[in-house]
Amino acid sequence: MALAHNLGFPRIGRDRELKRALEAFWKGDLDEAGLRGTGARLRAEHWQLQKQAGIELLPVGDFAWYDQVLTHSLMFGVIPERFRKAGAARPDLQTLFAMARGATGGCCGGHAQEMTKWFDTNYHYLVPEFTVDQQFSLSWEQLFEEVDEAQALGHRVKPVVIGPLTYLWLGKVKGEEFDKLELLERLLPLYAEIFQRLAAQGVEWVQIDEPILVLDLPQDWKSAFERAYNLLQQEPLKKLIATYFGGLEDNLGLAAGLPADGLHIDLVRAPEQYPAILDRLPSYKILSLGLVNGRNVWRCDLDKTLEVLRHAHERLGERLWVAPSCSLLHSPVDLEREDQLDAELKSWLAFAVQKCEEVTTLARALSEPQAADVRAALEQSRAVQASRGASRRIHRPEVQARLAAIQPGDSQRQSAFAERIGQQRARLNLPAFPTTTIGSFPQTPAIRLARQAFKQGKLSGAEYTEAMHSEIRNAVKMQEQLGLDVLVHGEAERNDMVEYFAEQLDGYAFTQFGWVQSYGSRCVKPAIIFGDLSRPQAMTVDWISYAQQQTDKVMKGMLTGPVTMLMWSFLREDISREQQARQLALAIRDEVTDLEAAGIRIIQIDEAAFREGLPLRRSGWQGYLDWATEAFRLTASGVRDETQIHTHMCYSEFNDVIKSIAAMDADVITIETSRSDMELLEAFEQFAYPNEIGPGVYDIHSPRVPSTEQMVSLLRKAAQRIPAQRLWVNPDCGLKTRAWPETREALANMVAAARELRAAG
Ligand code: GLN
Ligand code: ZN
């Protein structure tokens, strides 16, 4: 029989217990014993849930107080100098949280470690910091303690560690430059030590995550894999090397041949690699097939999946294991918690607990195909596939007809930028270095309370509208007083830039408890695209029109773009990302033209997540960029030349995508640049980016108020790279997380900076 195992389980708890405990601990409302107690309870519960679901080999080491990469940094003693306590031999929880969140008071000094996205997920890890004289020493007992803990509960466990190459790959060199791969020889003895200790605890298998095997790797990294695993081969444990988030492609031979006892591959993301793997796998190795999607919320099509599995079973027999595609960290915890979803929709979904059950059903379908519960599960899966295939809620002819009718001209503005900009300048009549903001103003407690009261029915629709109108009036008055040129309404009515729109589109569903960890105690609850998408009615026109009525200045309309909507939602699997992007594009396009018809002269379409959508492999980039750019253009091109389209992207790396950014053809793009000292503009300069640019002149992540001189100096630097007549003046991003006093001061200084530049001519 094929062994059912799991690569990792979400750690936050089905009611986000870990989030609550962490935040209480940070506030001082919970002591360390209380926090540790919650952690232990959650681990016990999660092992139990997986075991009940039939998982035979349970992951240990998937729990983390903040982030699993950070746990490894502690385990290896990769603790930057600024977090080392004088006299203390070992790091403790305080050290861990200081590294994650920056020092707060007593412990040790310094800013938090940098955080960045875990591959192409919305999970963020803490970037290890390596120095040229980096030493490694086993400094953290958590993994061994948790193995003991699980064994004491009677579980058969498989510890999970991040592999040495992936760990080094994820880190960053600090101080003197050197090749971090040189650290491998120093790091490997720690793995040997860890494996020996685990073996002494009676562990048989260890899972070594090496997801970088699905990336384009430089040759020296590939060679390092062989070196590393040859060395580790002598260690007593059986090793399962786990790869996920994509196909092995050119690393397939390498991965298959590594001296380890098993290999896990992701057949959800990369089903095409299956035959090649079978060919290349040495006959002593276990093959673990990742067949249940750990990254999405849909039930698995068991029949279809069983076709591959039966084939594999014939070839591999006992050497076959079954698992989710990747750790279930990226999936919500338990569907059973949802009691507001309608029965049909709910029957289509599976969260982590249900995914474990699916893995087990698949494994048992090989050995006990006649078992009543297996047959019932297969029956149910068939019914789900049939109902989804035929559902009118999913497949909507009117949406498909509209998609089919798209013409090439629909994603083309009427005239070229050079022609449009003249008309826009004449109509808008703005000064040089026009000032604006990115959209949101502080989401004050009063705003959040009003929205809550409205959702609970304590505030009527009219009362809520009036509360938001009053916020808009204040925002407009404030901006007029500050002397900003292009105003915004402030986005008070929006909980979140994606959810706000998703709630108003047909084809989106929402869960109550579908939380997924984003970083630390932060969780997100992505909306679910379940069917063809359309916009039943205007979404923002009333708010923006109201705002425009309060002022003679230009009011900018504010929308979220199709690619960002897509990246921050759970997607359908029955149609491509590209098709879903196009549906979103048409829906938002209608909003754009409605805003124009309502007299709005500037419309901003935010694409904060545009770059996030890039595939992990370079070979996939162009295809993605083509359709993503096209989706944006389709959204933006329904308007007249005189209507100015803005876009906003809050990140920094443009070098490798600048061509597509230019192809989006937004009249104005605002970007985050202040922390790079305008160096990011180099990409735009070298490409001779033709349209207008608003390089952010101050960092909105900090409450610090930037001085006028600082912003003048940044703008001067910008003007060395971009012709001054094409520059806008704005902050890096929206101001919703800021408070009003610092916002007002910072914007006053920003307006003064723009004036100074104008005066200097
Ligand atoms: N318009 C949004 C805001 O100002 C943009 C946010 C973002 O880019 N992340 O909040
Ligand atoms: Zn932004």
UniProtKB/TrEMBL annotation:
Zn(2+) 1 binds at residues 648, 650, 672, 733. Its EC number is 2.1.1.14. Keywords: Amino-acid biosynthesis, Metal-binding, Methionine biosynthesis, Methyltransferase, Repeat, Transferase, Zinc. It comes from the Bacteria. It catalyses: 5-methyltetrahydropteroyltri-L-glutamate + L-homocysteine = tetrahydropteroyltri-L-glutamate + L-methionine. Pathway: Amino-acid biosynthesis; L-methionine biosynthesis via de novo pathway; L-methionine from L-homocysteine (MetE route): step 1/1. Its cofactor is Zn(2+). GO terms for biological process: L-methionine biosynthetic process; methylation. GO terms for molecular function: 5-methyltetrahydropteroyltriglutamate-homocysteine S-methyltransferase activity; zinc ion binding. L-homocysteine binds at residues 438-440, 491, 606. L-methionine binds at residues 438-440, 491, 606. The active site is at residue 701. Binds 2 Zn(2+) ions per subunit. Binds 1 zinc ion per subunit. 5-methyltetrahydropteroyltri-L-glutamate binds at residues 16-19, 117, 122, 522-523, 568, 612. Zn(2+) binds at residues 648, 650, 672, 733. Belongs to the vitamin-B12 independent methionine synthase family. Catalyzes the transfer of a methyl group from 5-methyltetrahydrofolate to homocysteine resulting in methionine formation. This is 5-methyltetrahydropteroyltriglutamate--homocysteine methyltransferase. It comes from Halopseudomonas litoralis.
